[in-house]
Structure formats: structure tokens, C-alpha cells
Write a structure and sequence with these properties.
ABC transporter substrate-binding protein, 6-stranded mixed beta sheet, 4-stranded mixed beta sheet, alpha/beta, SBP, transport
Amino acid sequence: MTEHAWRLRGAAVAAAGALLAAGCAPGGGGAPNGGDLQGVQLKVAAKWTGVEQDNFVEVLSGFEEQTGATVEYEPTGEDTGAYLGPKIEAGEPPDVALLPQPGLLEEYAAQDALVPLSGDAAAALEENYTGYWSDLGSVDGEAYGILLKAAHKSIIWYRPEAFDAAGVQPPKTWDDMVGTTASTLSDAGETPFAMCGASGWTLTDWFENVYLSQAGPEKYDRLTAHEIPWTDPSVVDALETMAEVWGEGDYMAGGTDGAVQTDFPTCVTQVYGQQEAAMVYEADFVAASAAEAGATVGETAQAFPFPAVGDAAPVVVGGDIAVAMSENEGTQELLAYLASAEAQTTWAGLGGYLSANSQVQPDAYADDFTRQLSQTVLDAGEDVRYDMSDQVPSQFGATEGRGMWAVLQDFLRDPGDPEATAQDLEDAAQEAY
């Protein structure tokens, strides 16, 4: 794909009112009708904050208007499992939870903490999602979850003004990014990267992109399943590659200490608000945070594909899966609504959102960039891979202070011994598996 195709040409945030029209929501797939849930109160828990939370609450308001139900949003914080665990033990889980990992879904299903999809919710999943995506929310053939919000995690965002001043272009390979783009920016007095190291999941995303491109899809699958150990030379190679950026304190806003202490989305603000760095790596949902920081997506905020480390550039996809945790009235109806093209078209119009729903039309998105992202997933074919850390046991791949998050944060602090880091990853993996 050309650089031009990756330029963000449209506004990332657009009003959704027109998109609520029936003509913009084909394939409703079981969306509720008629205000038959008057007086029903439901709780939905998810990790989203800031603009993402605001947009999701706006989507929920459509369900409230249609059904008469009241939906309360509960933020879980970064560690969804740590939030939900005590709620489940106390017998007070939210009615609907958004799980950021299929691995967490499998754990809760094994604990009988989830209610299978039924009625309109099950029908919406079958109607609106292909087998690959629906399988992500299933355990032993039983459908529990709906991939509500997908995330394209193979993108690096940049500030064109900084690139233009330094005379550099978006790189196509890792070597070009490190050896030319970053070094030239640094020589010109511009810090190349803002790092989101306090949010450990962003560091696993760095690893996954480097590893997928360098080691290839087959090894990626084998490592995910722990069929090869984390001490495998391919893991060490990936860590050594990452150290080419992480080991250069001058390449990161605030140096090494700042990189470890900066969370997401503060790192986005460092690029587009404070202008302390030229680039930030993270997924398509950066668009919403960039806009909040005052950038115009498509003009002052642009992006390029994560550069190829090996033969091909990586395409890593993540996502949040909506599940029922109660049998309360309205729960399945809410899931049916969230799975509908109507609800997801509304969210697509607000920006910072990517749908896996096959009924959501391309013109639902507020910008050309997101349309291009959805196409890159299709173009990657069998080589696209789901986020590795989200597929492994959550205590290894998605728990603050443990597993991959903690080990990679330590590696960001001091990337001088990749072999020791690989051993730490293997030790944590053995404990989790």
C-alpha cells in the first residue's frame, strides 16, 4: 500500500446523528425495538476512559432511547481481570462486561461466570460476524462473546510538521525507521518517540509486531500456544531488535525514566499536544486521543504502517469482546443491540473505532484512514494475527505487575540483556500455563 493510501485524509471525529438514520444501519441483526424495558437497570463494565468512554456511552444512549432501559457504565481500569474477579466472587458482576482478551473469556467460561448468548444476541452474532471473529468469543463450540470493538495494532502515528522540519519521510522498514528516520529527527533536535511504558499492554504490542514480522506467522502461533519456549532464539532476536529503540534514551521523550512512567493516552498528548516527540506507536484508537489533544487527523496527525522487520510488514489485530455475566432482564437485548450494525455504525461515525461486523458499511466511518485499515486486515489474509498477549492466560499476558507486562517494562528500563529477559518471560509463562 502506498504512503498516500495511509494518509489520514478525513476528520476522525464526526457527528453521528445522520448515521442513526435507518438507511445507514443495514443488517440490524436483532437490535431491540419498542421501549419494552422501561424501568430495567443494567450495568456495563469496560476499560475505556476519556474519549473512548464518551463515545461508548453515546452508543449506549441509543439502546436507552429505544428500550427505555437505563444503562450505567463502570470503568474497570487497565486490569479488567482484577476488577471483575472480586465482583464475580461477591455475586455482583456487571450485566455486560467488555473483555480485552479471549484468554480471559476462556477463564471465566471455565468458572461458569458467563452466560451463553441466546435469542437475538445469538442471532446477531451469526448474522453479522464471520466465523473467524465469532470463534474468538466461543469456548468448546458455545458462543459467549461478541467482538464489539476491533483495534488495528500495526500503526505508528507521527507529527508531519516534525518530519518536514527534519526532512524525513515515513519509513517502510525497521532499519529505515531506526537508522534514518529516528536518527535524523534526533540530530535535528526532535525526540523521535513518545513511549507509553507505564501501560504494559503497549509494550506487548511492540513485541508482537516485531516478532510477527521477524519470525513469521507460524512461529507466532507456536509461541502463543507455548509450543516453543520464550527462550527460543527468535524471541531473543526480537528483543535485540526492540533494544535498537528502547536502548536509546535520547530517542524517547523523558528518556528511559520518562518512557517507563508515561501511560496511554498521555504518550499521545506528548506528540500532539505538548509536541515533545515526533512519533508514537499504538493502534487506530490513537485517532480519538490525538483529536482530543488538538490535532486534526489527516493533517497534523498522520500514520504509517508498522515497518517491516522481516520480509513483510506485520498486521496485528486486537479487540474487546462483550459478554453476559448475568441473566437479568435486558442483558441479551443489550448484547443484541451492541452486535447490531446500527450501534456500530453510530460508533464508527464518532471516530477512533474499527468494527469486525460485516454489515457495517464502509461509508459509516468518519475518515478514509479507518476504511483503509479495514482493507489492510482483509489484504493480510491468512497472515493477519490476533494480539498474542490477549490469547495467552491473562496472568501472563494481561495483568499489571506480572508476566509480559512487568518483564517488558523491566526490559524498557534496561534492555541490555535480552537472553535474561527471554528467560524471565519463559519463567512467567511456565507459571501461567
